[in-house]
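Researcher: I'm preparing a figure for a lab meeting and need a structural model of a single chain. I don't have an experimental structure, so a prediction will have to do for now. The sequence is pasted below. Please return the structure as tokens so I can convert it later.
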Amino acid sequence: MEEQTPVSTDGVDDAKLIVNYLPPTLTEEGLRNLFAPYGQIDYVKLIINRYTGQSLGYGFVRFTNAQSAQNAIHELHNFKIENKTLKVNVARPSAQSQTTNLYVSGLGQQITKSDLDAAFSPYGKIADSKILFDMSRPSQPVSRGIAFVRFAEREDAERAVSQLNDTILRTSRIKVKFADTQMDK
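Model: Understood. Here is the structure written out token by token.
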């Protein structure tokens, strides 16, 4: 029998994953089937709109051990399914995730994800980053000049805000602040 993964001292359950950018057609059973090859699953939860019954595009998968979760991250992070590219990470308690997520505005059209990561990585480990695009013309997506960068540690995010806010990235002056949380809205 596999040993249960304890929750670490920082409150993170290393066996619980968050899966973002799921296609709207994927069911909870489909999510389970996608992750089943990587280990024994404790539970799967697809997050749906309670009024429409439609998927909100993300869900959680908890394995019975952290190694299975790491195997799934290794194989399925950036995996393409339908027209979506999955983002798979260890799920963080919401307050921790929200307090390390930065909102970046003022990005020039020429800024790539590599440029963004290169600018922010000197301040600490980046858990995830994403530039938002206007997809009204999928064949020619255009940057909206906005990005989110989530650090693994709060102090790294604080350092990035203090050092990068109101600075020039390539030819554009960027603004960097902590992203609004659900409670701020």
